From TrEMBL, chain A:
One of its GO terms (cellular component) is chromosome, centromeric region. The lineage of its organism: Eukaryota, Metazoa, Spiralia, Lophotrochozoa, Mollusca. This is Centromere protein N. Keywords: Centromere, Chromosome, Nucleus. It holds the Pfam family CENP-N. Belongs to the CENP-N/CHL4 family. Its main location: nucleus. It comes from the Eukaryota.
UniProtKB/TrEMBL annotation, chain B:
This is Centromere protein M. It comes from the Eukaryota. It is found in: Chromosome, Centromere; Nucleus. InterPro entries: Centromere_Cenp-M (IPR020987), P-loop_NTPase (IPR027417). It comes from Sinanodonta woodiana.
UniProtKB/TrEMBL annotation, chain C:
Keywords: Centromere, Chromosome, Nucleus. Pfam families: CENP-I. It is found in: Chromosome, Centromere; Nucleus. Belongs to the CENP-I/CTF3 family. PANTHER family: CENTROMERE PROTEIN I. This is Centromere protein I. One of its GO terms (cellular component) is chromosome, centromeric region.
Length: 360, 180, 715
C-alpha cells in the first residue's frame, strides 16, 4: 500500500528531479542513496527506477504512510503550481508566542484529525523556506460509503494568520475547518478570496496586506528583498529588449510610449508583478451613462461577471496599458488588485453594498 | 497627412512601418537591416497614422510605407484602415504595401476578402508572411527591401509606377518594349 | 471423441443443462464441482462450439442463480470458433428480459469479447435494427454502442437512427461511445450528419474486459496457433485495423495524415474463410478492401466497389489503377469532393492546426497521384488559385509549383485571372531564385499543356460535338475528370499563344528588374527552347513566336552561353516555320495558317540578330531592321573613345559575352591577328573556335542563315 503511493508520487516527478528529492527526504540513509546512484536502474526507464526505490523503502521497518507523505510534499515543492491554492486567514488566534515546532504541529493535527475522520488518516509536515507544508491524508469516517483517501495540502507561515490550502471536497469542508481551528487554537477561519497557483505571489500579496495595512499601496519597487521568499524581485524583461535599438530604426511613438510607461510605473512599479492566473469581478452597478439612458433601467443594477484569465493577469493588465490597448490611467479597481490582495471582487454601488453587509 | 514629395530627398532611403503594438514591426525592421541592401536604409515605426507632431521636424522624407496587419486581431485591420486616410494618395502609386501576418492561423478575425478588396481599391501590393516565424519574417523583409529598391527609384530600369504596373495590374500593362 | 470418453467436462455440462429448476448454491457439491471442471477446461484449452451453444442457454436463461450465470458467461471461452447461433441465442435471451440487467450486459460484453471468433456475422447483422433498440437501456448503452460499431455497414446508416443517436447524445451529453458510433456513421454517410464530431477522446470504447479478452486470445492462440498467425498476417496486410485498439492508433495517425485509411465493415474473417468467390455479394461487386494484389485486381476488374474513403486513392496505388480506368462518374465526383474539402481545410482554412508536415505529406501524395494519372484535377486548380492569393511564396514552394504545372487547360482570360496574375504579383517582388523557379514551372506547365492536356481537351471537344448528333456516344476514355457540357469552348492555339506572350512579358520584366543573372537567363532560354520545340516534339500544328524584344534583350547578355543558346533557339524557330510552310503547301495543316502572321516578325528578328552578330550593322536604319532603334539604343549614346565602330560593337568578336574567347583566340594566334577588329577576315574560323568551346549556337545560326546568301528564307 505504502509502496504503491510512493510509486505514484515519485512517478509524477521528472527523472532528473528524483534523486535530489530523495536526498532531501530524511527517510533513506546516505548509503541507500549511494547504492541507488551506483546502480544501473538510474539510467533506465523511470518505471524501473521507481520500482527499485519502492523495493528499497519497503525493506525498511519504519516505512509508513507519513514518510511517504513527506516525500509527496517534497515532490510538490518542486512544482507547487500543480495545485490551485486558496488563502485563508486565521482570526482571533489565542496563542501569541508559542514556540513553533512542526513535529508538535503534526501530532496536534493527527490528534484532531482522528476526532473527525477515520483514524487511518495521516498527517505529514515539513519545514520549507520558513513555512510549514502539511499534507492531510484524509479517509472518510467509517459509517460513510468508502471513498479513496484524499490529500489536502496546506502551507502555513508560523506566527502569521495565513494558511494556504488546496481544493477539497465540500463534504469534508466543515470538519476540516474545525480541525484547523482546534489545532491552531483560533475561532474563525475566513476566506481571503485570493486563489492562484503561484504560491510565492500569493504569500507576498497576502502578507503585504497585513504588514502595510489596508490602505497602503503595494509597492514592489520599495521592497528590495522580500522577507519570505528567496526570489528577488525581477526587472521586466521587455524593457531590455526594447533598448536593443539599431540607430537606423526610429520609433515615431516613442514619446507616447515613454509617457505611458511612466504612468504605469507610478502605479505598478518597475518590477514584475505578482502572478495571478485569474481575476474576476462581479459587477452589480446601476447604469450611469446619461447619454444612452434609454437602453437600461437606471434603477435596476446590471449584473454581470468580468473575468481576466491568463498566465499572469496583473502583468497582462500592465502590458495592455503599455501597448495602448487600455485607456490610461487605469481605473482603481484594476490598479489596486495587488494592494487589496484579492482576486475575486464584487463591484456594487455604495449604498447597495452597505445594505448587503448589514443583512449579513 | 504625410506626403512622399513634401520634403527634400535625402541620402538615406526611409521606410515607415505602421501597425498596431505587438505585430512584430521592430523585428521586421531589424530583419530588413540584416538583409543585404545596396542603399542606406532608415526605418521608422509607428503605431498608427497620423504621426505625432512632436517629431515632425527631424522626420525624413518617407519613401515607402508598409502597413502591417495581424489577421488574428480585429483591431489591427481597423487601425490600418484608419491610418490609410492620413496618407497622401500618391503613395498608392507603388510606394506603399500591406504585410499580412499570421494568415496560417485558424483564428482569423479579418476576412481575407476585405484585405484583398482594400488592396485592390488602393492598388496596394500585398505580402503574406507570418512575422512571428523567423524564416518567413526574413523572407518578407527581403521582399520589402527589393520592392523598396525599385520603388525608391534606386534602380535604373524601373520606378514606383513600374511596380504598380507589374504588381497590381499586369493584365493591363501594354508591352512597352515590343514593336506595335 | 470427447463424447465417447464421457469425460468429466461433458458430465458437468450435461448436469447444468439438465437442471430444470434453480439449483441450490449452498452446499451443492455437484454444482460446485461441475463449475470447477468447466473453469479448468475453459481456462486451459477453451470450450468447443457445441459446449458453448449448450452453456449459453444455461447462462442466459436466468434460470440459475446470478452468481452461477455470471461465472458461466465469463467461462464461455471458445477453443476454436463461437457458433453464430450461440450469439443469436444470447441476444434472444436478452430480448426475453428474463435474465437480470447485469446478466444482459454481461452477455453483450461477452459478444464483444469473442466478436472476432464468431464463425459468421451475417445473421447477427440481420439483428442490427433490433440491437439498435437496446440503446434505450442506459446500463447497456456503452457495450451496445461498441457492438453496433463493429456491426455497422453502410446500408445501416439511416436518418432515423442518426436522429435517435443525436437525441441520446442530447440527453446524456457527449459520451465517448456515442461519439464513436456517430463517427462511424459519419464515415459511411457524411451527408446525413452535419454535426461536428469532436475528437477529444483517446479511444471511444475503453477495453472494459481486458483480462477476459486476453484470456480468450491466449486460448485461441494455444488451440490453433498456425491458423491464428496466418489470419493475423492476412488481416494485417489487408486491413491494418479491425478492433478499437487500433482505432486509437488510427486517430493518432490522423493527426499526421489527412489521407484516410480504408475501413470496411465487410469482415475479414469472411474473406479468410470463404475466399473471394463467396464475397460476391448480392449485386456481384467486390469491396475494394479484398483486393490485395494487382492479379486480384485483374480478376475482378469489372466488379470492384469503391471504398467509402475515397481519399484513400492518394495512398493506394491499386486504387489509383482502379479509378484511372473506371468510368464511374460518382467515384470521380466523390473524390473531387473529398479533395476539395481536405485541401480547403489544409491549405486555406486552418493551415496551422495540423503542422506543416501534414500539409506537405498531403501535397506530396497528391503530386505523385497526378504524376500517375497524367491529368489535372479541376478542383485542385480552383483551390490552388485561391491559395496562391494568400501564399507567402515560401511554404511547400516546390510542391506548389509542381502541382501548378499540372493545371488543366482553361479559357486563357480565366486562367490568367485565377492563376497567372496572382503568381505574377508574387513574382515581381520576389528574389531572383523565386523568379527562376516560377519561369521553370511555367515552362513545365506549357509542356504539360501542350503534350498532355491538349489531347484531353481535344478529345472532350470532339466528344461534345459528336454528343449532340448521336445519343450513344463513346465516352472520353483518357479523361477522368470531366463534366457533361462543362468544358469551356476555346482553342488550344489561342491559349498557347497568349500563354507564351504572357510568360515572355514576365521574363522581360524579370530581366529588366534584376541585373542579368545567369540562372535567370538560363531559365528564360529553357522557356524559349520549349516554345520552339512544341511543333517538333509534340506535333503541335502551329508555332508561337515570343516577342522579339526578349531576343534582343538577351542579345545584350554578358554570358557567352546565353548568346549562343539564343542563336540556336532562333535558328530552331526558323526551321519550325520552314517545316510548317512545307506542311501547309502539302495540305497537312488543313488550311490552318494562323502561325504565319508572325513570319514578318521572325524575319525581322533574324535579320536584326544576324546584322548585329555577323554583319556589323547593328544599328542599321533600313526599313526592315528597326529593332534596335525601338529599344532606344542609338549609336550616338556610345562613347566614341572606344574606337570601335558602334555598328560593329555587337558583332561576334566584339561582343562583351565573347570577349574572353576573342582574347584567347588572339592569344593562340593561329592567324597572326593582333586586334579583335582583324578577326573580321577570319570570322568563320572564329565561329569554329567558339564551337569547339561548346558554343555551337552561333555557328549553327550563321550557317542556317548565311549559306543561302538570302537572309530571309521563309518569305
Amino acid at each position: 500500500m505504502e509502496a504503491d503511493f510512493l510509486k505514484r508520487y515519485i512517478g509524477k516527478c521528472k527523472t532528473s528531479d528524483i534523486l535530489s528529492v530523495l536526498k532531501k527526504w530524511s527517510f533513506l540513509s546516505s548509503s541507500d542513496i549511494s547504492h541507488l546512484e551506483s546502480s544501473e536502474t538510474i539510467k533506465g526507464p523511470k518505471r524501473n527506477l521507481v520500482g527499485f526505490i519502492a523495493d528499497i523503502c519497503s525493506k525498511r521497518d519504519n516505512f509508513n504512510i507519513e514518510a511517504v507523505g513527506e516525500l509527496d510534499l517534497l515532490c510538490l515543492q518542486i512544482k507547487p503550481s500543480k495545485c490551485i491554492w486558496s488563502c485563508y486567514q486565521l482570526e482571533e488566534s489565542n496563542d501569541e508566542d508559542e514556540a513553533f515546532d512542526p513535529i508538535q504541529l503534526k501530532q496536534k493535527l493527527r490528534k484532531h484529525l482522528g476526532l473527525y475522520f477515520d483514524p487511518r488518516s495521516s498527517v505529514s509536515t515539513i519545514l520549507h523556506n520558513g513555512a510549514v507544508w502539511m499534507k492531510l491524508f484524509i479517509s472518510q469516517p467509517r459509517n460513510q460509503k468508502y471513498q479513496a483517501p484524499r490529500s489536502v495540502y496546506l502551507i502555513h507561515y508560523p506566527h502569521t494568520p495565513l494558511i494556504l490550502m488546496t481544493g477539497h471536497r465540500a463534504s469534508i469542508r466543515e470538519f476540516l475547518f474545525q480541525v484547523l481551528l482546534n489545532c491552531f487554537n483560533c475561532k474563525k477561519l475566513s476566506e481571503m478570496k485570493l486563489t492562484g497557483r503561484h504560491v510565492d505571489s500569493l504569500v507576498e500579496l497576502a502578507l503585504n496586506r497585513w504588514c502595510q495595512g489596508d490602505f497602503s499601496k503595494f509597492r514592489y519597487e520599495q521592497v528590495q528583498r522580500r522577507p519570505l521568499s528567496e526570489i528577488l524581485p525581477r526587472k521586466r524583461k521587455v524593457d531590455e529588449s526594447e533598448e536593443e535599438l539599431d540607430p537606423n530604426i526610429t520609433c515615431e511613438n516613442e514619446g507616447m510610449k515613454k509617457r505611458r510607461k511612466e504612468m504605469l510605473d507610478k502605479v505598478f512599479g518597475t518590477n514584475t508583478q505578482p502572478v495571478l492566473e485569474k481575476v474576476d469581478f462581479k459587477v452589480q452597478v446601476r447604469f450611469k451613462d446619461t447619454k444612452n439612458l434609454g437602453i437600461a433601467d437606471p434603477d435596476v443594477p446590471i449584473t454581470c461577471q468580468v473575468k481576466f484569465e491568463g498566465p499572469s493577469v496583473i502583468e497582462g493588465i500592465c502590458n495592455l496599458g503599455r501597448c495602448g490597448m487600455a485607456k490610461l490611467p487605469l481605473p482603481p479597481h484594476l490598479t489596486r488588485i495587488t494592494s487589496l490582495a484579492k482576486n475575486h471582487f464584487v463591484l456594487a454601488d455604495k449604498g447597495e453594498l452597505d445594505s448587503k453587509r448589514k443583512n449579513n | 497627412m504625410i506626403h512622399p514629395f513634401n520634403k527634400k530627398p535625402e541620402k538615406k532611403t526611409a521606410i515607415l512601418i505602421v501597425g498596431s503594438e505587438g505585430v512584430g514591426k521592430h523585428a521586421l525592421a531589424l530583419d530588413m537591416l540584416k538583409t543585404e541592401h545596396p542603399f542606406e536604409l532608415n526605418i521608422r515605426t509607428a503605431g498608427c497614422l497620423p504621426l505625432p507632431a512632436e517629431k515632425a521636424a527631424d522626420r525624413p522624407r518617407l519613401d515607402f510605407i508598409c502597413f502591417v496587419i495581424d489577421i488574428t486581431k480585429p483591431d489591427s485591420f481597423k487601425i490600418v484602415k484608419e491610418s490609410l486616410q492620413h496618407m497622401d494618395i500618391s503613395y498608392c502609386l507603388g510606394k506603399a504595401c500591406l504585410v499580412v501576418s499570421k494568415v496560417k492561423n485558424s483564428h482569423r478575425s479579418t476576412p481575407l476578402e476585405s484585405i484583398h478588396d482594400l488592396a485592390n481599391r488602393l492598388s496596394l501590393q500585398v505580402v503574406f508572411g507570418d512575422l512571428e516565424d523567423e524564416t518567413e519574417r526574413l523572407h518578407v523583409a527581403r521582399r520589402l527591401v527589393s520592392t523598396l529598391h525599385l520603388s525608391a527609384g534606386l534602380q535604373c530600369s524601373g520606378s514606383a509606377p513600374t511596380l504598380v504596373n507589374c504588381v497590381i495590374d499586369f493584365a493591363v500593362q501594354t508591352d512597352i518594349h515590343t514593336a506595335e | 471423441m470427447s463424447l465417447k470418453k464421457k469425460n468429466p467436462l461433458n458430465d458437468a455440462v450435461c448436469y447444468l443443462v439438465s437442471a430444470d429448476s434453480k439449483l441450490k448454491i449452498k452446499g451443492n457439491e455437484a454444482l460446485h464441482k461441475s463449475l470447477e471442471v468447466i473453469e479448468r477446461t475453459a481456462t486451459s484449452s477453451g470450450l468447443s462450439p457445441e459446449q458453448i451453444l449448450q452453456l449459453v442457454d444455461v447462462a442466459a436463461s436466468g434460470k440459475q442463480a446470478e452468481t452461477v450465470s455470471k461465472k458461466l458467461i465469463k467461462l464461455l471461452i471458445p477453443a476454436t470458433k463461437v457458433p453464430e447461433v450461440a450469439v443469436l441465442k444470447a441476444i434472444s435471451w436478452i430480448c426475453t428480459n428474463r435474465p437480470s440487467m447485469t446478466i444482459q450486459c454481461l452477455l453483450v460484453r461477452w459478444i464483444i469479447v469473442v466478436y472476432d471468433y464468431i464463425d459468421g456475422r451475417d445473421r447477427l447483422h440481420g439483428l442490427y435494427g433490433l440491437l439498435f433498440r437496446f440503446l434505450h437501456f442506459h446500463s447497456m448503452l456503452p457495450y451496445m454502442c461498441q457492438l453496433l460499431y463493429f456491426l455497422t455497414r453502410r446500408e445501416d446508416v439511416k436518418l432515423y437512427r442518426v436522429r435517435q443517436l443525436l437525441e441520446l447524445q442530447k440527453n446524456l451529453g457527449s459520451q465517448p461511445y456515442l461519439t464513436g458510433l456517430l463517427l462511424i456513421y459519419k464515415h459511411y454517410q457524411p451527408g446525413l450528419l452535419s454535426v461536428v464530431i469532436n475528437r477529444k477522446y483517446k479511444s471511444f470504447f475503453p477495453t472494459y474486459d481486458r483480462k477476459w479478452s486476453a484470456m480468450v486470445r491466449l486460448i485461441q492462440e494455444k488451440s490453433n496457433p498456425l491458423e491464428r498467425s496466418q489470419n493475423d498476417t492476412v488481416l494485417e496486410r489487408l486491413q491494418p485495423k479491425l478492433d478499437t485498439s487500433s482505432m486509437a492508433a488510427a486517430r493518432k495517425r490522423r493527426k499526421l495524415d489527412s489521407i484516410p485509411d480504408i475501413q470496411s465493415s465487410a469482415s475479414m474473417a469472411d474473406f479468410v474463410k470463404g475466399g473471394l468467390s463467396k464475397l460476391n455479394l448480392l449485386d456481384g461487386t467486390v469491396p475494394f478492401i479484398h483486393i490485395s494484389t494487382f492479379g486480384k485486381l485483374l480478376e475482378s476488374i469489372d466488379k470492384i466497389e469503391f471504398p467509402n474513403q475515397m481519399g484513400a486513392v492518394l495512398k493506394s496505388r491499386l486504387l489509383q489503377h482502379v479509378i484511372s480506368y473506371s468510368s464511374d462518374k460518382v467515384a470521380d465526383t466523390r473524390f473531387q469532393f473529398w479533395l476539395q474539402a481536405t485541401l480547403h481545410e489544409v491549405l486555406l482554412d486552418y493551415p496551422l492546426e495540423n503542422g506543416p508536415e501534414y500539409t506537405t505529406r498531403l501535397l506530396r501524395s497528391l503530386k505523385s497521384f497526378l504524376d500517375f494519372l497524367q491529368e489535372g484535377i479541376p478542383v485542385l486548380d480552383a483551390v490552388l488559385s485561391s491559395y496562391i492569393c494568400q501564399w507567402n511564396g515560401l511554404d511547400n514552394r516546390c510542391l506548389i509549383f509542381k502541382l501548378l504545372t499540372r493545371c488543366r487547360l482553361h479559357q486563357f482570360s480565366d486562367f490568367r485571372e485565377s492563376i497567372l496574375n496572382p503568381l505574377g504579383k508574387l513574382f515581381f517582388t520576389s528574389s531572383v531564385y523565386f523568379k527562376c523557379q516560377t519561369i521553370q514551372a511555367l515552362t513545365d506547365m506549357l509542356q504539360n499543356q501542350v503534350a498532355v492536356e491538349r489531347l484531353h481537351h481535344e478529345e472532350l471537344e470532339s466528344y461534345q460535338t459528336s454528343g449532340q448528333s448521336e445519343s450513344n456516344k463513346n465516352k472520353p476514355m483518357s479523361v477522368l475528370f470531366w463534366e457533361e457540357d462543362g468544358e469551356e469552348d476555346f482553342k488550344t492555339v489561342d491559349f498557347v499563344r497568349e500563354f507564351v506572350q504572357f510568360v515572355s512579358q514576365l521574363c522581360l520584366v524579370a530581366l529588366q528588374c534584376g541585373k542579368s543573372h545567369p540562372l535567370l537567363e538560363h531559365c528564360i532560354l529553357n522557356f524559349l527552347e520549349m516554345a520552339s520545340v512544341l511543333h517538333k516534339c509534340y506535333q503541335v500544328p502551329f508555332v508561337v513566336f515570343p516577342p522579339a524584344s526578349l531576343f534582343v534583350w538577351l542579345l545584350f547578355s554578358s554570358n557567352p552561353y546565353t548568346v549562343s543558346r539564343l542563336c540556336s533557339v532562333i535558328s530552331r524557330f526558323k526551321f519550325v516555320f520552314q517545316s510548317l510552310k512545307i506542311q501547309q503547301s502539302t495540305g497537312q495543316l488543313g488550311g490552318r495558317n494562323d502561325s504565319f502572321e508572325s513570319v514578318t516578325e521572325v524575319n525581322k528578328t533574324i535579320l536584326c540578330l544576324i546584322n548585329a552578330l555577323w554583319r556589323c550593322k547593328a544599328f542599321d536604319h533600313s526599313e526592315e531592321t528597326r529593332q534596335m532603334e525601338e529599344l532606344s539604343f542609338s549609336p550616338e549614346l556610345v562613347d566614341p573613345r572606344i574606337g570601335v565602330d558602334c555598328d560593329a560593337m555587337l558583332s561576334a568578336y566584339h561582343h562583351q559575352a565573347f570577349s574572353c574567347f576573342t582574347y584567347k583566340f588572339i592569344k593562340e594566334n593561329t592567324f597572326g591577328i593582333k586586334h579583335p577588329t582583324e578577326i573580321k577576315v577570319c570570322k568563320r574560323e572564329f565561329l569554329g573556335y567558339l564551337e569547339r568551346h561548346s558554343l555551337k549556337g552561333l555557328n549553327e545560326f550563321v550557317n542556317s542563315v548565311i549559306i543561302r546568301t538570302k537572309p530571309s528564307t521563309t518569305k
